[in-house]
Design a protein that fits this description.
With 130 residues, the chain is mostly helical. The protein contains 5 helices and no strands. The termini are far apart.
């Protein structure tokens, strides 16, 4: 039970990280210093998508599931619903490239606004709200 709970916690952490990678640029609209955490996270997310590598959180979760005596992603709300978001069935390399392009475009839009705001700050003495 303990190892399964830890594995489920890793899934929640993984989902939160993925959400931060996708939407963190928009958090920088409100809190510009978030970009110092988000840009490296975004780079990591893009690298994982484009290289086809597996995130270490996935390996950790699988290890914890093995310690719990589980053979796969079965049982419970978290494993039934959230794992499908992180590991959709039938995900292909072209799909991963498409997700990477979407992620890049989405964050380019977010950071375009952040950069515009920061560029206006020296002229006006204060950063404008988006």
């Amino acid at each position: 039970m303990f190892w399964r709970a830890l594995a489920n916690g890793v899934v929640l952490l993984h989902l939160a990280f993925v959400a931060f990678v996708v939407f963190g640029g928009f958090l920088a609209w409100r809190w510009p210093k978030v970009r110092f955490l988000h840009v490296p996270a975004l780079a990591w997310g893009l690298w994982v998508e484009l290289s086809g590598q597996i995130c270490p959180l996935t390996a950790l979760e699988n290890h914890l599931r093995r310690l719990a005596g589980e053979a796969g992603y079965r049982g419970g709300f978290i494993s039934h619903y959230l794992l499908r978001v992180l590991y959709p069935p039938g995900l292909t390399r072209p799909d991963q490239w498409g997700l990477a392009v979407l992620l890049t475009v989405l964050n380019a839009l977010a950071y375009g606004r952040v950069l515009r705001r920061l560029a206006l700050a020296p002229r006006t003495g204060t950063a404008r709200r988006p």
